[in-house]
Write a structure and sequence with these properties.
globular; about 450 residues; binds zinc ion; single chain; four-stranded mixed sheet; alpha/beta; about 25% helix
Length: about 450
């Protein structure tokens, strides 16, 4: 039965609401949250009034808002053998993510003009198990396409400051970055930057062989610091909104804090792997840990956690960036040759929660970093919180339950993961998308487009 036919009521002893965690009854009709109120009568078996269906979460379950992952590389069309809309979104739903925003690169064509966006939307239609929106991209020669892409609903524009890894998505230079910022400011959009500086990386020794240290040295923290300084300067000059993607280098935090302090419209994300893993623990040849920027030392990781605590980092999103297993060079373990990217859309929540709970964070923090703030960053309407009027995207999450990561249970197209065999806390028991359970059989996700902000 569809949600429009009867009112659905979900009762939870612990619901993660915008103003805190408390017992709540969430009433849903036509896929939207009608009301959030106290539980009446107390949870437990009760007679169901006509036209109403009541679900009471188990005592060990918490009701979370569906997470919003604004950093997913779906790669379809063009590199559908790397990942695809059906597999990526099914994995997302299994991981408690009910909205993804697809990155403009690694698919062919990249999403750098309106025609390409149309192609991606046509490919995605009917395949998505969660709601999906699209970032646009800006590459040299494509800047004139930005207004049309914006009009057609992309949530913002991504740029690279150095080689992206794929030839069809080249980087912009300093004047290009300035031009993109100016256009984005005029459109009221946001510029997302892969912030690693080309000159710093070019002067570092190239990665080679099985040693993780060689890879890490090839992409020093100084490359992130230099690039982020450039982004801040460009955003400030243009009066644009800028977002730093996948921050790894804690050395950049003082710059970011200072920029935010003087009112630059800057937001920052980091990713589960920078918060959970550490360079010291990565075995030589273990190319499943290769991503860009690289995972750095333990001490760096703890500074990222402190920045989350201080509100300097806004969001935690997956940077799900898959490739076929052969491209990870697992057999020879060559960090120079392996594709840089970690797939983790299904594991994002338990990976981050496992680390967060050890450091005294709560599920409020998780909901802010992984649902509310990413929804705000992209301007995805109706998502990211459990509140009246928003979509009934919800997750029954058992924070104290645990599991061991079995790669075969991942719905990602390819099962390579640096988390294989790890014991994680937090089990996603059920996911609802607009009031309907996501069961993996029938893709019921919608394609999202940017809506004009009403206020
Ligand atoms: Zn990425």
């Amino acid at each position: 039965m569809r949600s429009g036919d009867r009112q659905l009521v979900i009762q939870a002893r612990r619901a993660v609401l915008p103003d805190g965690v408390r017992p709540a009854e969430v009433r849903i009709s036509a896929g939207r949250i009608d009301n959030v109120g106290p539980i009446t009568p107390p949870p437990g078996p009760r007679a169901e009034p006509d036209g109403e269906r009541v679900i009471t979460l188990a005592d060990d379950e918490v009701l979370l808002p569906g997470l919003v992952d604004t950093h997913v590389h779906v790669n379809e069309p063009g590199r559908t053998d790397w990942e695809g809309f059906a597999t990526a979104t099914r994995a997302a739903a299994a991981g408690g993510i009910t909205t993804i925003v697809d990155m403009p690169l690694n698919s062919i064509p990249p999403t750098t003009n309106a025609a390409s966006l149309r192609i991606k939307r046509e490919e995605a239609a009917g395949q998505v198990h969660v709601d999906a929106g699209f970032w646009g991209g800006a590459v040299p020669g494509s800047f004139a396409s930005m207004p049309a892409l914006h009009r057609d609903g992309v949530f913002g524009f991504k740029v690279f400051l150095r080689d992206s890894g794929v030839p069809e998505f080249p980087p912009v230079d300093q004047s290009g970055l300035g031009a993109v910022m100016e256009q984005a400011a005029a459109l009221g959009s946001v510029v997302l930057v892969h912030a690693e500086d080309a000159a710093v990386i070019d002067s570092a020794p190239p990665p080679a062989g099985r040693g993780y240290a060689s890879y890490q040295a090839s992409r020093p923290a100084a490359a992130e610091v230099a690039a982020i300084a450039q982004v801040i300067e460009a955003a400030e000059r243009a009066g644009a909104r800028a977002h730093i993607l996948h921050l790894s280098a804690a050395d950049a935090l003082p710059l970011i804090e200072a920029a935010k302090g003087r009112g630059v419209a800057l937001t920052v994300e980091t990713c589960p792997h920078y918060l959970a893993l550490a360079a010291e623990d990565i075995p030589d040849g273990a190319t499943q840990f290769k991503c860009a920027p690289p995972i750095r030392e333990l001490a760096n990781r703890e500074r990222l956690w402190q920045a989350l605590r201080d509100g300097i980092i806004d969001c935690v999103v997956s940077d799900h960036s898959p490739c076929p297993p052969a491209m990870k060079h697992l057999a020879d373990g060559d960090f120079g040759a392996a594709w840089g990217g970690i797939s983790s859309v299904q594991l994002s929540l338990p990976v981050v929660w496992t680390q967060a709970r050890e450091r005294g964070f709560s599920l409020d923090d998780i909901a802010r970093w992984m649902a509310a703030r990413p929804a705000e960053l992209a301007g995805v309407a109706g998502k990211g919180r459990i509140a009246p009027g928003l979509d009934a995207d919800l997750v029954a999450f058992a924070p104290d339950d645990g599991f061991e990561v079995d790669p075969l249970r991942l719905h990602h197209r390819h099962k390579v993961t640096p988390y294989a065999g790890q014991r994680l806390h937090g089990v996603v028991r059920r996911t609802w998308l607009r009031g309907n359970p996501v069961d993996g059989d029938r893709p019921s996700g919608r394609l999202l487009a940017r809506q004009e902000r009403t206020r």
